[in-house]
Structure formats: C-alpha cells, structure tokens
Amino acid sequence: MKLSTAVFALTFGSAAAFSPAHFGARHSTSLQMSGVLNSQTGQSSLDPAVIDRYNSLEFPQDKILAEYVWVDAVGNTRSKTRTLPSSKASSVDSLPKWNFDGSSTDQAPGDDSEVILYPQRIFVDPFRPRSDGVNNILVMCDCYTPAGEPLESNNRAKAMKAFEGKDDEEIWFGCEQEFTLFNLDERTPLGWPEGGMPSRPQGPYYCSVGPENNFGRAITDAMYKACLYAGIEISGCNGEVMPGQQEYQIGPCVGIDAGDQVTMSRYILQRVCEDFQVYCTLHPKPIVEGDWNGAGMHTNVSTKTMREDGGLEVIKKAIYKLGAKHSEHIAIYGEGNELRLTGKFETASIEDFSFGVANRGASVRIGRDTEAEGKGYFEDRRPSSNCDPYLVTGKIMETIMGPDAPEIAPLDRQQA
After folding, report:
1. In a 3-state reduction of DSSP, which class is residue 225?
2. Which residues are CB-contacts of 196 (< 8 A; sequence separation ≥ 6)?
3. Helix 389-400 and helix 311-324, axial crossing angle in degrees, nearest 10
4. What b/e sequence results for 276-287 when a residue is b if at least 16 CB atoms lie within 10 Å of its CB, and e otherwise?
5. What's the whole-model pTM score?
6. Contacts of 90 (CB under 8 A, 6+ apart)
7. Is 284:384 a contact under the CB 8 Å cutoff?
8. How many CA atoms lie less than 13 Å away from 82 in the CB half-sphere?
9. 77 Cβ partners below 8 Å, 6+ apart?
10. pLDDT of 280-317, one tens digit each?
11. Which residues pair with 249 in a beta bridge?
C-alpha cells in the first residue's frame, strides 16, 4: 500500500528516511567485569572481550535461531529461542507452532500448563546479526490453548475481530511510545540525584541537547537502529519533557500490524536496556511527587476516507463516536492512567471527553495541517504508555466504525 500522503506525516515526528545498515558483531561499551554484577546505571559489567569471543562464531548456513516473543498475563513481553532450518524463515506460515509453561507466566494452571504459541509476524533479529546473507529472526506470537482457543490474555485475537472484513478502510495508526529510564535501583530516573529531584523544573529537557539536559540518548539511539534493522516502521524519536523520559514513534502501520510492531519494539527496547543495564518502565506516572509530566502512547488515526477530500467531517464524526464511548475506552487505555490524566501537564481530565484543534489539553487533538487541508488524521491522547496496543487500536477501530453519535463542541484555544 502506498504511504505517500503528506497528511499523515504525523505530528509525532517526521518520517525518518533511514535504511537499515548491516550490524557487525556487537561491542559492549561497558566496563570490564570486576567482582559481582552491580546495580550501577548505564553500563553492563560484562567483559566485551568475552562476549565477542562467542559473537564472532559463525552460524551454520542451513540453520537459523528463531526468538519466539509473546505477551504475558500482565502485558510484559517474554521470549525463548529455538533452532530451525533456514528455509522456515521465508514466511510466517512456514514457522511451526511452539509451546511454553503457562503456569510460570500466570497464563495457565499448573495441572494443565501448556500454552501454544502461534507465529503471526516475522522480524529480523538485531541481537544476533550474521554476515552470510541469512537472518536470524524474531517471531511475534500470540497465545492459545491446546484446543485452539485464544487465551483470555490474548488481546491480539480480540483486536483481529475489529479489523476483520474492513481492509477497504485502510486504517493507519501512528503510535507515540513514551518511556522512562531509571537506575537499577528502580527509584532514581536517569539524570536525577539519588534521593532527590532535579534543580531545574521541566522545560529544558524536551528535544534537548547537552549533558545537563538529555539523559539516555545512547539507549534510545541504539533501540532506534535495532528497530530499523529488525524491519519495524519506527519513524522518529526525541527526548521528552521530564528528564530521563524518552519517546519513539511507530508508524504509519495498517490495522493489526500496529499492535505487532509496537509490541515488538517494546521487546527490543527492553533488550537494549538489558544491555545497558538500565531499568525501563512504561508506567504512566512514574514520578507522582512534584510537577512532572506523565508518559503516554498518543495514538494517531487515519482511515482512507479521512485522507480524501472532505475527510475533516469524517474525522469529526469519528471523534463524536469516541466521545460517546469515553468510559469504555478509558477502561482499556492502561493501568494507572488516572494518575496521568488529571487535566494538567498536557492532558485532559480522565472524567471528561473533549477535542480541539492543536489543543494538547484535550482528549483528542486535530492538527493544524489537518484543519487547513480539510483532511488527514486525529490524535487520541488518552492511551497511557503501558496500554495494550492491540486493545487500543482494536477499540478505536470498533468505535469509529460504529453508529453515529451526537455532535460535541470543540475545545479550541479560544474556548480553552
């Protein structure tokens, strides 16, 4: 599908014109091991010479490593590795199903613990690069019982029901994933003094440069390149408003693929943080004391008719539908979101629905370009950073494809 329409050059960042480059053997920038692994921030204590000794070993050309990735009962990613013939990597349909012990992930009882992994999407593995023209792979999976029923925690299967039969809508999603980086004490964000707060209020840290302003750029850049190498549609990144907080953007992605790509990008983010020995949280309000922004996953949405002439009226009708089901959306937009959606710090109140042009204090925002051109997209600013992207995209699709709803007055700047 052609993604050339300028109207979806989302405000979450201009599309980055990067081409995945070949990775050589990974070289840790870390300190060499001295004593036990510690909980200091920023660098792994493993000796890079030891790691590279094994990374330099060649893979058999007729075999690949496939890392099967899934979402557990609380929304975290899990994974395990298997060896497969190289020919199996040609398509997701060629990959075998697999299983895991669901009693260890709270997804099955101990007396009937087998959970079946169904491969759904293939990505290139950025953590096990090879130079022989064959790729090791990451496999996005969802979870089923041995009888073939999706688990209750399988939100991908739930979202698929909302997208089925609606290919003609060509719905695009762009997801702005915010996250916060901490020391391994899990209490001190990067750039913060231990046991205290920064001496300056938020303001200088957003899209910032300089060692006194930007904390975690190397981690975000490493994640960015790894996502590009994997084949994920990552379109930008930036430092966020609170020190230690970062953001990257995924999309535009079509339909269910948005959930697959955001979920795999989260897996890659956690693996990169594992290498850097930094704790990463998707909690929507990791710091509740003081005047600090929370973290969200603003979700940009555009259907085919929204991108055509007259699309602004289609967008407004979709927003009215979202307003009519505000409480239903809030219920699945992430845990702890009430700490973030307070009506302060670029959020709307969790209790009330609103929309406006260029209004970041509204529940849903219409961009200036969309208003001027009369077509484009809208941004749902309510989802939290720890939301399930399958639930969010599936619920938006279900709602905007539903019956018309009463008109809502805009909360534009002159009314705000």
Report:
1. helix
2. none
3. 110
4. bbbbbbbbbbbb
5. 0.89
6. none
7. yes
8. 15
9. 69, 70, 71, 263, 266, 267, 270
10. 999 999 999 999 999 999 999 999 999 999 999 999 99
11. 176, 236
